[in-house]
Amino acid sequence: MSIRLQKTLNISRDFLLLALGRAAQVVIAFATLRIATTMLSPAEFGLFALLTGFRAFFGLFLISPVGQHVNRHTHEWFDQHTLRSYLKAYQGYILAVSVIATISLVIWSWLHGTIFKEPIVWTSVMMGLVVLSGTWNATLVPMLNMLGQRLQAVCLEFITSLCTLMSAVILCKIHDTGSMWFAGSIIGCVIGSGLAWIALGQILGPQLQPTQPFMNKQILRHYCAPLAVSAALLWFYTTSYRFVIEWFWGAEILGTFAFAYIFASQIWAVFEALMTQFIYPYFYRTLSVSASDMPAKAFCHLVNAVLPIYLFLLALFIMGADLVLPLVSGHQAYQAMSWLLPFAFIFEFFRVISALLSQATQVTKNTSDNITPYVVGGGLVLASSLISAIMDWPVIYLALLLVASGALLFAAMFKSMFNHIAFHIDLYLIALPLCMVIINLVLKPLLRPSIGYATMVLCLEGMLFMIYCSYLFRNNHHVHALLKTRI
Fold first, then answer.
1. Nearest CA-CA partner of 258 in 271, 270, 240, 273
2. How do residues 355-410 score in pLDDT, each as one tens digit?
3. DSSP result, 110-124
4. DSSP track, 153-186
5. Highest mean pLDDT among 22-26, 150-154, 293-297, 341-345
6. Which of 316, 315, 344, 318 has the alpha carbon at shortest distance from 434?
7. 8 A C-beta contact, residue 150 and residue 14
8. Rounded Cα gap, residues 333 and 338, in angstroms
9. Residue 42, Ramachandran bin (φ over 0: left; ψ between -120 and 50: alpha; else beta)
10. Sign (positive/negative) of CA torsion 306, 230, 157, 331?
């Protein structure tokens, strides 16, 4: 067997493995939403949405910038046999952020007033533990994938999700509140990250003491600080509307509205993670070993490899999202918001492709380029939410304004990244999925949802996605160029 054929078979095997893992994650996500909306009232689901939004702020603002620094240097530290030492240094930082998250929730609850049924000290301690365990899980499991241990990563992701769901159900049997459901993720993340640490230890080998510190002032000032500002602004884009809705309209309305956006974000996150696990390691490896113009070319390859798939997924989500709603919602109040799902998926689509374009800053290391686009997106979402709430407009107005905010975020991100890397998008690669998006938007009002039809559409769309991905990976030269890199 030739070396080229063997590599092709290995890549096909890796993609199939990751795709199966993502399919399992979709099943878990559907089951999680179904059980959560059955066990929690819309008001309690709204409080759960608030807690996840609160956690997301610390994850994006304080954890993500340093986490990206870790991802950026994972291969380098692994090659230098210093990865374990740097991760131990990272532990101190994660503990500090967890303590800050705990204290911050106490202060916020004191200013806002009591809205949780559990004592605020208990809820705040749970917040710190969720930040701590969730960060380690989100660090170690993807790290295994980046280092070529795809099977372990896929299995541990599934174990984490399953244990999280089981823990949440058990806790909600004790007390069916949003806080209890939120706390369920602690056990799952602890199990997943613990097993990931053991698996990582088996491939690290003897470790050396690093000659450079984990963080220095230059990295903090020029790389992490701009990322932190961008991440905080991204939080305003993805989450700030939840706090505005709860403040003006109450937790019950937030629960039904946020359900559509949480559903959309979870489904997008599954497929975004598939691309991150399969394509991004080759991109990051290229950045760590290449010089001259190769990283810029790698970014162009990355965009043209991933963007067509995201567009195809958007077309499928627009057509089929509300059709599967009866499968994933256990309360009539959530099903009544089915009309909101296309808006939610389009809103998340703009976030996903903006995040894709922002990878250009991994090439330039000038992460401040992300700030202006997220000022546009985050500021518009916050302004749209406040105006809609103060004017007491119908919810559909807010949904339309959120989509417009997402479109402007994408436009600003495209302009900002293009000013630094003159990449191009091959129109022939996006023509078919773009046409499907337009056609589905036109045909959507003609369809009527039912559980039987939803199941059929779900299976058909899954098959179409796999066929389309297979076609792209065989015929897209941008994919081939990335996959030539050895990870």
1. 240
2. 999 888 877 777 777 888 999 999 999 999 999 999 989 888 999 999 999 999 99
3. HHH----SS-HHHHH
4. HHHHHHHHHHHHHHHHHHHHHH--SHHHHHHTHH
5. 341-345
6. 315
7. yes
8. 10
9. alpha
10. negative
Q: Tell me, rounded to whole angstroms, the distance of Cα 382 from its chain centroid.
A: 20
**Spatial separation of the C-alpha atoms in residues 68 and 75, rounded to whole Å:** 13
Least Cα distance to 94 among 218, 236, 189 occurs for 189
Residue 484 DSSP SS3: coil
CA gap 37, 26 in Å, rounded = 16
CB 73 within 8 A of CB 82: no
> Tell me: the pLDDT tens digits for 283-315?
877 776 655 567 778 888 888 888 988 998 898
344 and 268 Cβ atoms separated by less than 8 Å: no
Per the CB < 8 A criterion, the answer to whether 154 and 21 are in contact is: yes
Please provide the DSSP assignment of 274-318 as one string. Answer: HHHHHTHHHHHHHHHH--TTHHHHHHHHHHHHHHHHHHHHHHHHH
Written as six digits, the tokens of 294 are 């190769």
Helix or strand or coil: residue 21?
helix
Amino acid at 276: T
User: Which residue in 79, 44, 482 sits closest to 299, CA to CA?
Assistant: 482
Give the separation between CA 397 and CA 257, rounded to whole angstroms: 13
Q: Which residue, 129, 473, 132, 69, is CA-closest to 278?
A: 473
Burial zone of 118 (CB within 10 Å; 0-12 exposed, 13-18 middle, 19+ buried): middle
Residue 63 · residue 135 · CB < 8 Å: yes
User: For residue 344, what pLDDT band results from cuts at 50, 70 and 90?
Assistant: very high
Q: Is the pLDDT of residue 6 over 70?
A: no
Question: 15: Cβ–Cβ under 8 A, 6 or more apart, which residues?
Answer: 278, 469, 473
Nearest to 258 by CA among 70, 402, 86: 402
Q: Provide the token pair at 137.
A: 């899980």
- N-term to C-term CA, the chain: 21
Exposure string for 230-248, b = 16+ CB within 10 A, e = fewer:
bbbbbbbbbbbbbbbbbee
DSSP string, 317-375: HHHHTGGGHHHH--SHHHHTTGGGHHHHHHHHHHHHHHHHHTTHHHHH--GGGGHHHHH
Confidence of residue 452 (pLDDT cuts 50, 70, 90): low
Its sign, for the CA torsion 17, 18, 19, 20, is positive
